[in-house]
């Protein structure tokens, strides 16, 4: 089935629907951002958790549930359509803020993060896929830079807001009132205004005969190509995993590091917001930059900048230096995050692109769980500083792996849209 003839690929032709999806993804990002500055404090102050592995368990369950949901969300988007997956994701998010507000034990917090991970896997994956559909091949990096800007800028703003509210009126329930609004608005927009975009992917496939005519590979074939066999796809997958490995560590341990240095709750909220805010803002430029200068160099450089930022936080003891490290970590992540997704889009047929994105996002978001477990175990055995240094080293080595294994290729932007 070929898409309707009135459809047209490109950001300019689809700016209204694209802008709507940017707004929707901002609410998706805000849902995860509301936890970033205060959940470790809730674990220590309300539930009296001491071991870092126990505190970071919420990131483990979030990462695992999101990773596996990503895997299936991509395939469901290819077979069932994008919009239905997006709406289901918002419905699953509905109980999250209420569980966080009133959880009587830490296990209820973990349950909330299972729901949050599944919801994020469905909603964020789908907004990514829908923007790729609308943008076409010429502006893929730009589109994903805008998408990730919206999500992570909103995450930073939500972290700042909940940190401020917690410092003024307490850790619970007031900071999570914001989550109720995020869910309600995101769900209503997705049900009432968002349109299906799968026909745009079919149109792009039809305009590339060698891709459009090929039969869709099996899910197992897509999984192994993306994970191991294809040097480009597997390099991107491991870089994505390590990127979220260091984000999982930052999410769980940085508030502990800052508190140990005597930072106030408001200062911790500010520092927790700097990293995703810089990450979000800079993606407005780095995504478009990858369309012009290529993907590989930006990924390698970004992983190295991330490692430097983490190392600075490991040795710092003052707010100003923590802020410098957070800025560098955000900048490096902005160089990497939309570029990885754009490179995935370059490498595969539009007909099964959503399935490939799902596999990539499976590995990427499994990094949350790996990072939380690894950094928690090392922190308990050897101290928090050792865990932070270990993650800095892993991040640097991941960049070197991309430099050696990934092949530089011609960007999809060089292909004609007609």
From TrEMBL:
PANTHER family: INTEGRAL MEMBRANE TRANSPORT PROTEIN (PTHR23517:SF3), RESISTANCE PROTEIN MDTM, PUTATIVE-RELATED-RELATED (PTHR23517). Residues 18-410 form the Major facilitator superfamily (MFS) profile domain. It comes from the Bacteria. The chain crosses the membrane at residues 20-43, 49-72, 84-102, 108-129, 149-170, 176-194, 248-266, 297-316, 322-345, 388-408. It comes from Massilia cavernae. This is MFS transporter. It is a multi-pass membrane protein. The keyword Lyase does not apply. The keyword Membrane applies. Keywords: Cell membrane, Membrane, Transmembrane, Transmembrane helix, Transport.
């Amino acid at each position: 089935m070929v898409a309707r003839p009135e459809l047209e690929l490109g950001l300019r032709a689809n700016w209204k629907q694209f802008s709507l999806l940017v707004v929707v993804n901002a609410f998706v990002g805000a849902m995860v951002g509301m936890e970033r500055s205060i959940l470790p404090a809730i674990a220590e102050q309300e539930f009296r958790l001491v071991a870092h592995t126990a505190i970071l368990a919420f990131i483990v369950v979030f990462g695992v549930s999101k990773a596996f949901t990503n895997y299936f969300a991509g395939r469901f988007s290819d077979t069932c359509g994008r919009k239905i997956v997006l709406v289901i994701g918002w419905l699953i998010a509905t109980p999250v803020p209420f569980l966080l507000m009133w959880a009587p034990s830490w296990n209820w917090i973990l349950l909330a993060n299972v729901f949050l991970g599944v919801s994020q896997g469905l909603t964020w994956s789908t907004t990514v896929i829908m923007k790729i559909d609308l943008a076409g091949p010429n502006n893929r990096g730009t589109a994903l830079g805008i998408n990730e800007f919206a999500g992570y800028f909103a995450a930073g703003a939500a972290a700042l807001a909940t940190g401020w509210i917690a410092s003024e009126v307490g850790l619970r329930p007031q900071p999570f009132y914001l989550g109720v609004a995020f869910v309600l608005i995101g769900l209503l927009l997705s049900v009432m205004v968002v349109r299906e975009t799968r026909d745009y992917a079919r149109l792009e496939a039809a305009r590339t005969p060698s891709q459009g005519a090929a039969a869709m590979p099996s899910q197992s074939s897509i999984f192994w190509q993306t994970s191991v066999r294809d040097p480009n796809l597997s390099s991107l997958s491991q870089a994505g995993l390590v990127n979220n490995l260091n984000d999982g560590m930052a999410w769980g341990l940085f508030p502990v590091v800052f508190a140990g240095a005597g930072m106030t709750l408001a200062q911790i909220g500010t520092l927790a917001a700097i990293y995703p805010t810089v990450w979000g803002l800079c993606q407005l430029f780095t995504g478009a930059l990858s369309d012009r200068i290529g993907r590989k160099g930006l990924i390698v450089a970004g992983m190295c900048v991330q490692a430097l930022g983490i190392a600075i936080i490991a040795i710092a003891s003052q707010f100003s230096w923590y802020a410098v490290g957070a800025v560098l970590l955000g900048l490096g992540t902005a160089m990497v995050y939309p570029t990885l997704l754009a490179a995935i889009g370059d490498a595969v047929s539009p007909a099964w692109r959503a399935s490939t994105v799902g596999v990539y996002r499976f590995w990427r978001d499994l990094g949350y769980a790996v990072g939380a477990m690894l950094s928690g175990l090392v922190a308990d055995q050897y101290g928090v500083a050792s865990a932070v240094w270990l993650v800095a080293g892993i991040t640097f080595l991941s960049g070197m792996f991309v430099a050696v294994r990934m092949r530089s290729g011609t960007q999809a932007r060089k292909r004609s849209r007609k």
